[in-house]
Queue: 2 jobs
Job 1
Amino acid sequence: MSELLGPERKKELKRLIMELHRGAGVEEVKGRFKELVQGLSPEDIARLEEELIEEGLPREEIQRLCDVHIEVFKDVLKESGGGEEWHPISILMKEHEIQLSAVDGLIRAAGDGRREATVSFIDHLLSAENHYLREENVLFPYLEKHGITEPPAIMWMEHDEIRELKKELKSLRGMLEGNEEVFEKVKKVGEKLRDVLSSHFFKENNILFPTAEGVIEEREWVKIREEFDDVGYCCYTPPPL
Ligand SMILES: [Fe+2]
């Protein structure tokens, strides 16, 4: 844990989080918040979230709170560099980008009532399941091994939310034949999915991945990459190790 995270600052930061939890507006606490988080690492934030959960704040609250945190942290967060192309984090980040552009494509195609394109974007999004499996079954256990347990649990909850939306798309997919209403529904679900994905990927790129890069050792990344290869890829094939 960063030395900058002394007990006083931590206490104040927790107090602010609790204020947000009780419904204080982001604008009210934003200034104080920003001052307090200057110099904090993503790992510090992850640990802090864990402590709050240990102290009894439900995980669902932390997840909702995350969205507010992101608003506050946006200016001070630094996206994970990802590093070289073979690196598991680079792969996940690239897949995030591809999935976001697929969901944008889906919204446009459904908006124009283009059936073939709509079906193909839905299929593309559905085929990204192994992206989530690589995170859940490979990356998260490594984080847990290093004592980071709550952020992966929150990300996993969001994965399930994403899966529910994709299930809706899957069931709409078969009803697209010349039915304008269904296109409209697909567009709506697509827009919801875009919101959930953007917020989820932002958290991973800016908090979870930098945290992982801080605690996971170089030789472990090679193992992670091997395990990624075993699970397989979706949207693109990364260069070999
Ligand atoms: Fe994820």
Job 2
Amino acid sequence: MSTVSLGERPSISTSLRDATATAHERAERSDFIDDLMAGRLDVRAYSTLAAQLYFVYRALEEVGDDLNAADDTKPVVAPIFDERLRRLPRLAADLDVLGVDISTVEPLPAVTRYVAAIDATRADPARYVAHHYTRYLGDLSGGQVIKSRMISHYGIDKDALTFYAFDGIDKLKRYKDGYRDALDGLPIDEAAHGRLLDEAVRAFEFNEALFAELTA
Ligand code: HEM
């Protein structure tokens, strides 16, 4: 017997991409990113961004480790959790090469709010997934363009851009397709799916707020 599915909901990956498309465009066109990508800024601007991202990834990876280790939250986080994505040691190494002593850097107000939001997802792993998606899929996509522009515009050494190098992942496109399949198989209900979408839009907004503060 065949069944007709009426009004089937879009998959998690499709709905995420759709829900964040406008926010993505805004982030990509923000003054800071636009200036950085056009070569109108300098190495310091990139270093400042990398230093602020240090606090974001510290939270993202600490919370991810904890959620992936706990029996009740692991089923939601494990499908997307991947050691090859871990960025904090790379950011730390990049900052060293860039001559930034992170112990002297304070998070900007937007980053403090961003980190608090990531931390709050300890209570709701579906919301955690939103932050994971927003940053890592971004790094695997636009991040690759950022890397090449930082080299060509500012002469930043590749050794200071290991943040964008994903060892052990050779085909980024294939990896992202696999990531989207993992998203689509997450064991979450409709309500959690809705919270994931809301949180992804917020995650983009935190990035936009960071860019606005970097411009100011
Ligand atoms: C320099 C600015 C940026 C450029 C040039 C850029 C470019 C791109 C491109 C070309 C894709 C499509 C990749 C694909 O489908 O395989 C993409 C996807 C994505 N980008 Fe960006 N991006 C930029 C900034 C950002 C920012 C600031 C964020 C968030 C922090 C972000 C998050 C994402 C995410 C989550 C995806 C995956 C969308 C999906 O397929 O679900 N991007 N980006």
